[in-house]
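Q: Please design a sequence for this.
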């Protein structure tokens, strides 16, 4: 690469533009971090809402129906009286089947048959004919015995499922919003990595472009001198044409190299941005792992020593973009774990083919995973990080992504120290689908 002289006004202006681009990227990343803090607040509110719903559910009075072994009502509770619009005395002796919607009529025989076998029934879906119309319940059936142990009837406890289903739908919707926010947090890490990756090749292009402009100016001045009738040798020496011609090939090579690197980064970014509906296919797992590690590690921990030990023809079958996100999450967790550990910080990435699977191990030099934390590490919303540093969804989402591709994700402590995450995906040896 040609060494650039002291930047002129045009150089300073171009460098200022690039600094503004980097500043904007930094501002975008800061905004995404602020969104992640807001996500933590919403996560706490969700946990409070879940506790509130659990309290309401515990206080609800379920429908209680007690029958004899022939399926006739013996006794009901107040909730049942309200549901059917009749007093307990009016319900006494009524066949249980009369309280059920036509689609649930056959359930009575199943409940009585189970009681004859001394079996309990859990969460049977029934539809009751209430005073305000049919309503579904989840029924648990137990056997009522005499003091001597003879079965004399059934005790049916029905919990209305309509309100529970609506509460579940609300929780599911909130969870989907949190999952989307976690993806945005991953995008923030991606932006930081891309900004870092693009910085060097774009600076390379800028430097060589400025050098090429100066060489073009010298050649233009040389041609103008010849047109003015000046001796060729004098014009050639004055405008340093020999040096310009000698430097021209390396300048063009530098421009090409920087542009090709930018092109490769954009191609990697496009693979990462593949939609959820993209079909599973064979992909180069080694390239995906190295790209994901590079984008996170170089931006988050520049002094990180990364060692790759990946076999040739390390291909897998699945979704490369989703696998890229999983590896980014695992590397980010490793960097967070090593942040408080003394240097040197090391990350060892090893791969192997084993039993039809492409196995990737990511080991860090951090303190490892606490024994009480290890069994819960993939649970949704579980995190040991302080507020604003983690959502508790990254590993849970990663585990789900890998499972949906027919693989598995596990965590353990390495015998020589540090944590090790093992990613298993269906192998595609020789570029063929498994």
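A: Design:
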């Amino acid at each position: 690469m040609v060494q650039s002289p002291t930047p002129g006004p045009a150089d300073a202006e171009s460098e200022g533009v690039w600094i503004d681009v980097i500043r904007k990227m930094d501002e975008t990343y800061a905004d995404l971090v602020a969104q992640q803090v807001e996500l933590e607040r919403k996560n706490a509110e969700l946990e409070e809402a879940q506790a509130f719903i659990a309290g309401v559910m515990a206080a609800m009075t379920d429908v209680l129906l007690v029958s004899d072994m022939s399926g006739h009502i013996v006794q009901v509770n107040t909730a049942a009286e309200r549901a059917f619009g009749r007093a307990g005395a009016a319900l006494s002796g009524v066949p249980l089947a009369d309280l059920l919607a036509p689609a649930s009529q056959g359930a009575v025989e199943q409940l009585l048959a189970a009681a004859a076998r001394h079996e309990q029934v859990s969460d049977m879906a029934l539809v009751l004919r209430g005073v305000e119309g049919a309503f579904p319940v989840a029924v648990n059936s137990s056997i009522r015995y005499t003091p001597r142990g003879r079965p004399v009837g059934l005790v049916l406890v029905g919990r209305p499922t309509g309100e529970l289903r609506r509460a579940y739908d609300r929780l599911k919707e909130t969870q989907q919003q949190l999952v989307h926010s976690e993806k945005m947090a991953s995008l923030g890490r991606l932006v930081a990595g891309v900004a870092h990756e693009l910085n060097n090749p774009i600076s390379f292009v800028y430097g060589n472009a400025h050098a090429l402009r100066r060489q073009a100016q010298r050649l233009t001045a040389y041609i103008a001198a010849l047109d003015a009738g000046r001796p060729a040798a004098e014009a050639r020496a004055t405008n340093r044409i020999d040096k310009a011609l000698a430097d021209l090939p390396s300048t063009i090579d530098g421009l090409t190299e920087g542009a090709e690197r930018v092109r490769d980064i954009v191609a990697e970014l496009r693979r990462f941005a593949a939609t959820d509906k993209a079909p599973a296919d064979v992909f180069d797992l080694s390239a995906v792992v190295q790209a994901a590690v590079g984008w996170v590690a170089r931006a988050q921990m520049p002094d990180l020593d990364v060692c790759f030990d990946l076999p040739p023809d390390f291909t897998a079958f699945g979704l490369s973009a989703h696998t890229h996100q999983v590896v980014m999450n695992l590397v980010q967790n490793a960097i967070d774990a090593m942040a408080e550990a003394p240097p040197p910080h090391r990350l060892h990435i090893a791969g192997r083919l084993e039993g039809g699977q492409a196995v990737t191990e990511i080991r860090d030099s951090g303190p490892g995973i606490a024994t009480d934390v290890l069994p819960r590490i993939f649970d949704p919303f579980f995190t040991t990080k302080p507020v604003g540093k983690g959502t508790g969804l990254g590993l849970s989402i990663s585990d789900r992504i890998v499972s949906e591709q027919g693989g598995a994700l596990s965590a353990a402590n390495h015998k020589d120290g540090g944590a090790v995450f093992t990613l298993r995906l269906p192998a595609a040896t020789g570029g063929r689908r498994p």
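Q: Thanks. Anything notable?
A: DSSP finds ten helices and twelve strands in the chain. The mean pLDDT is 77.
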